[in-house]
Amino acid sequence: MPTRRVPDDVKTLQGTYRASRAVEHVDFTGQLPKAPSWLPKAAKAEFRRVLKYLASVGTEYVTSLDQSALLAYCLNYAAWLEAEQRLLAEGPIVTVTVFNKASNNPTGTRDSISPYVRLSQVRQAAMLKAIAALGFDPRSRESISVKPTKVKKKQKQWEAKVYNVATPTDDDLIAEYNA
Fold it and tell me: Residue 131: in which H helix or E strand, if any?
């Protein structure tokens, strides 16, 4: 199992930091994207569900810059959901009419796999790629390096008073990380 990546701040304190090997931090200060009006109903519901979850967790790495990846995920989700609903209604096997090539007359019927099976598989694979691109799964979330937004000193002091919590120092954070 691979070892966990050590943050650049800890490497700096340990004296092992190398700028050539550092992961470039991205400081996102943008607003959360809004669902476009042209999205299908299921895609729009998924778009809002994902953004609501991200806002509740406090995630700040999905901004309007990521809207295209989020839209791709939501559109593939809606198409996958429709394909799955069709499969539940019609079943994975459909009866097709077989035609004679020469006379183009029907010669009989045969059972075949529903085209919605393949559509479901393709849309699910595309959804999983978009999930990884956005960092929604644990493995891809580890590879995303987001620099925390700077909080004003007065705001930290106010939060410490309101929540009756001591503000941790850098030494406390490093000791917690090494523990």
Answer: helix 115-134
